[in-house]
């Protein structure tokens, strides 16, 4: 275990610290960053912890100029005994490597990723909400750090982990706007990489959804504009008859870790699941035939959100609450928080002085 510098564990919580239910998401940032630098010749340097304000990003570097930056989002939860665990960190490490590879950046070894995540949690242990009342969200970010404008792979990169304590997301229902003009990703593009460019490409769609009175956007495929791909920050699932369908990992959508967890839970429950393309028209036809059940979106930040409607402004597809999403939400929460023995292998303990 890498031990953080003495004293950091004791970083006091601010006096006006909110109740866990009022933390929201991303509003309060932990005061430290766990980080490690990579040099073209020197490889990965030893992980360390600094004040968040001590690191700066070069304005003329590839991170800001050309978007050479990839990231992850994972959560740490406290179990009923107060112990802290990271949820599926090795899977997040692997996905970061895949994103880095696509953007020609150095792939952080799993041990570096794990050490940085552990350090980030350890120095912010007091920021992890109590059992069942939220989580600490970690944002490992790999970016080009060389101060140079040439368009080529950078010679220096850094992986830094920021954290934000957040509330347990509520399983509230959303109405989604299917965006038929703008696109998020095309075959062969960056869609599967967790990189800022995808989010930058997506914000206008989210704004259009809101302007039309919806909660979030559903991205459609770039070629026909009819196949559902993913929502703004979530993978999608729809229940049709006795089957649950989710779009396939064809390189245009993010390979969500929560998507994978939900697939495992559905299989374990004996639910028929399939990963295949599905169009708005097929959904509308299934609705007309009375075959549409629940729809839901899943993601690390969002966990699992029920979808009541998807509309492209012409056709409104309405889903029926069969109770499946609520059951899955509870199962997922139990697994993530260690309230069940099932799938314990997904949780990696983070030792702290309080819980060595
Ligand atoms: C996550 O769910 O981890 C994400 O990255 C979504 C984020 C844009 C809020």
From TrEMBL:
This is Branched-chain-amino-acid aminotransferase. InterPro entries: Aminotrans_IV (IPR001544), Aminotrans_IV_CS (IPR018300), Aminotransferase-like (IPR036038), B_amino_transII (IPR005786), BCAT-like_C (IPR043132), BCAT-like_N (IPR043131), BCAT_family (IPR033939). PROSITE patterns: AA_TRANSFER_CLASS_4. It comes from Solimonas terrae. The lineage of its organism: Bacteria, Pseudomonadati, Pseudomonadota, Gammaproteobacteria, Nevskiales. Keywords: Amino-acid biosynthesis, Aminotransferase, Branched-chain amino acid biosynthesis, Pyridoxal phosphate, Transferase. Pfam families: Aminotran_4. Acts on leucine, isoleucine and valine. One of its GO terms (biological process) is L-leucine biosynthetic process. It is an enzyme of class 2 (transferase). Belongs to the class-IV pyridoxal-phosphate-dependent aminotransferase family. It catalyses: L-isoleucine + 2-oxoglutarate = (S)-3-methyl-2-oxopentanoate + L-glutamate; L-leucine + 2-oxoglutarate = 4-methyl-2-oxopentanoate + L-glutamate; L-valine + 2-oxoglutarate = 3-methyl-2-oxobutanoate + L-glutamate. Its cofactor is pyridoxal 5'-phosphate. Transmembrane segments: none annotated. Pathway: Amino-acid biosynthesis; L-leucine biosynthesis; L-leucine from 3-methyl-2-oxobutanoate: step 4/4; Amino-acid biosynthesis; L-valine biosynthesis; L-valine from pyruvate: step 4/4; Amino-acid biosynthesis; L-isoleucine biosynthesis; L-isoleucine from 2-oxobutanoate: step 4/4. The modification N6-(pyridoxal phosphate)lysine is found at residue 194. Its EC number is 2.6.1.42.
């Amino acid at each position: 275990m890498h031990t953080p510098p003495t004293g950091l564990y004791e970083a006091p919580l601010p006096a006006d610290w909110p109740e866990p239910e009022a933390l929201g998401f991303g509003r309060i940032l932990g005061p430290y960053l766990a980080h490690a630098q990579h040099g073209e010749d020197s490889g990965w340097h030893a992980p360390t912890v600094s004040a968040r304000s001590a690191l700066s990003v070069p304005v003329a570097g590839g991170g800001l100029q050309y978007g050479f930056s990839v990231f992850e989002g994972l959560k740490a939860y406290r179990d009923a005994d107060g112990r802290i665990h990271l949820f599926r960190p090795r899977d997040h490490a692997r996905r970061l490597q895949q994103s880095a590879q696509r953007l020609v950046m150095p792939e952080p070894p799993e041990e570096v990723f794990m050490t940085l995540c552990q350090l980030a949690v350890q120095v912010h242990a007091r920021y992890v909400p109590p059992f069942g009342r939220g989580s600490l969200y970690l944002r490992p970010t790999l970016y080009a750090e060389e101060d140079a404008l040439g368009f080529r792979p950078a010679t220096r990169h850094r992986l830094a982990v920021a954290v934000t304590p957040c509330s347990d997301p509520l399983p509230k229902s959303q109405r989604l706007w299917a965006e038929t003009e703008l696109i998020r990703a095309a075959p062969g593009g960056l869609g599967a990489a967790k990189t800022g460019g995808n989010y930058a490409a997506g914000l206008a769609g989210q704004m259009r959804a809101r302007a039309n009175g919806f909660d979030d956007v559903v991205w459609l495929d770039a070629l026909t504009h009819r196949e559902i791909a993913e929502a703004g920050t979530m993978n999608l699932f729809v229940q049709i008859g006795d089957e649950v369908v989710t779009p396939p990992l064809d390189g245009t959508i993010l390979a969500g870790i929560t998507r994978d967890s939900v697939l495992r839970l559905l299989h374990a429950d004996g639910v028929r699941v399939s990963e295949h393309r599905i169009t708005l028209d097929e959904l509308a036809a299934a609705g007309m035939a009375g075959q549409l059940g629940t729809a839901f979106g899943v993601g690390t930040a969002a966990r699992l959100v029920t979808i009541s409607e998807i509309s492209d402004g012409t056709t409104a597809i309405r889903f029926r609450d069969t109770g499946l999403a609520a059951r899955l939400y509870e199962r997922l929460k139990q697994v993530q928080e260690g309230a069940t023995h099932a799938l314990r292998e997904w949780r990696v303990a983070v030792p702290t002085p309080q819980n060595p």
